[in-house]
Amino acid sequence: MPTVARGYGLKINRAGMAICPFHAEKTPSAKIYSDGFHCFGCGVHADVIGFTQRLFGLARPLDAAKKLNEDFFLHLDVGGKAQSTQASEYRKRQQEREEYERWENEAWLTLSSYYKLLREWRELAPDCPDDEPDPRFAYALGQVGYAEYLCEEFIAADENGRKAMNAEVERIAGFLGGSTGN
Ligand SMILES: [Zn+2]
Fold first, then answer.
1. What span, in angstroms and rounded, lies between the C-alpha atoms of 18 and 180?
2. Which one, of 136, 144, 129, lies nearest residue 179 by Cα?
3. Quick check: pTM over 0.70?
4. In angstroms, what is the span from residue 34 Cα to ligand 1's centroid?
């Protein structure tokens, strides 16, 4: 992304910011990431192809890919059979990315709700030590530390690490589903 942005005339400062070409501004509010563009001013968010497509007002992503191919001497067989494979590969990767992001949001919601619920249940301590404790209180005492640990692990993990927690996330989602209405 930085190579393409510079190639098309953007000046990227040390903070990785540039004047946005998609809206009028005097101070840079567009962030140039290694694989994408995001403007905090006008909200444009695009990958390299989307950026190029928008910058030159091209009709299709394929036109942007062709332009990049020519302007940056990539020597890709754009538009031929190879390209349609590349384009569908690209779409497939985009789809996988979107699916992962949806899953990640859901998973985080599950884990953080679980932790929040157990902290609430932990407040259900019996008034008198001889009283039979609320089973939710007993459960929370045993599990709240683990729930906190899962949240911390999820935050610290990379994408593969998070995916590896899926079975546990599903178990907890089932548990939460079963405990609604309590
Ligand atoms: Zn902008």
1. 48
2. 136
3. no
4. 18
